Amino acid sequence: MSTSQKMSRRNFIQGVAFAGAAGILSPSLNRAMGYESPNERPVFATIGLRNQGWAITNKSTKFADFAALADVDENVLGANVEKLVKKQDKKPDAYKDYRKVLDRQDIDAVMIATPDHWHTKIAVEAMLAGKDVYCEKPLTLTIDEGKLIEKMVKQTGRVFQVGTMQRSESGQRFLQAIALIRDGRIGKVQKVTCGINGMEGSPKIPEAEVPEGLDYEFWLGPAPKVAYRALPEMREGYGGGVPLYSNCHYSFRNWHEYSGGKLTDWGAHHVDIACWALGATDTGPSKISPVSYELPVEYKDGFPVVNDQYNAATSFRIKVDMPEDVEMIITSEGDNGILFEGTKGRFFVNRGKIVGAPVEALKDNPLPDGAIEAVYGGKVSENHTANFIEGMKSRKQPISDVWSHNRMLEICHLSNISMRLGRDLNWDPKKREIVGDDQANSFLSRENRKGYEINM
Hints:
The chain is α/β, with parallel strands linked by helices. It has a domain at about 5-165: Rossmann fold. About 35% of the residues lie in helices and about 20% in strands. It has a 9-stranded mixed sheet with strand order 17-16-15-7-14-13-10-18-19. α4 (about 75-90) links the parallel β2 and β3 (about 95). The chain is globular. About 45% of the residues are buried. Residues about 1-40 have low confidence and may be disordered. This is Inositol 2-dehydrogenase. It comes from Gimesia chilikensis. Keywords: Oxidoreductase.
């Protein structure tokens, strides 16, 4: 691509502004968005390619050209390069080190799908390098990381989409749920229950030889230095097969060193919708109470005493005191989905259904015209990436912005802290700190391992 073509595309993305960050799908999406030729399509790169990394790359080739891919596992990297060649008929450059992606001046935006403990470092450095960012949920490992990302979005002026796709893709039922609540169909909301399922613990996982092609030191990155652990039994269907039990690959979600278990995995979806429906995306809870829970290993002072088993909660029932005297329950029991209860009725919604008397009543008393669009802020996009690119054009934050995401994710992080310490936590949503509990406040941040500090 010539220099003039690069400047044309970059000027187009950064200079065109018009109202609204949605309403972008049409029979010819590229024309509707102004991309009349391949040279005007934004240039992307993906960092972290297993599972969801390929999923978001694959769907985004409809709207963007991918110039580079990065992953610390050379087997995953090579396999995804070949898959992408088939999708876009052009081979992307391949890197183990994501920093080489950020050095590229021709890349407009990065998509981040690494394990959670890498998100903040890469996202901050990408923004400082002039890239817009799409980052998979959960956005952060700690609450203070969220504050830093918010600060850098403001400082750099970058557009930042969080990959909570229930707000767009497969989100029509959730948008309808919010519209029902806003239209008063269940009266005043009194209780909302988020069912996010539990997880199983693990057997003891022994130290093992690092798989060939994986740079495990770089995979750990900001996390503490520990030995690689795995059992030989394989979990198929996840990027070619990975160990069923390990402290890496797919299972990173089950370790507090790298993630937050079900609370940040599925909680990042359903607690988000619940907060959106309650109008609580710019505030927070006042109290978190661990009613009942089970941790798979023994804890002392909030830390697991063993390092050879999963350590995130396997079952739980958390009570959250929300504004306007609304009670939120986050539970591993029952159906996966959200139950809204109000003074005039109740209904249940998940990715497969929305049911209840208020929903049935829509046959005779439909929602007002434009009610769904009013929730979304414009015409609803059927694709999260398309919404992100529209934000890149308008320089407006997309539907899943960092501020609303961090506010709801604070509930999930606080729930984990409450279980790790075994006590209620009182939260100040204005100061964004735990009231009168220095030990609990120490869990709001985590120091990166030496050599993996955020470069600012």
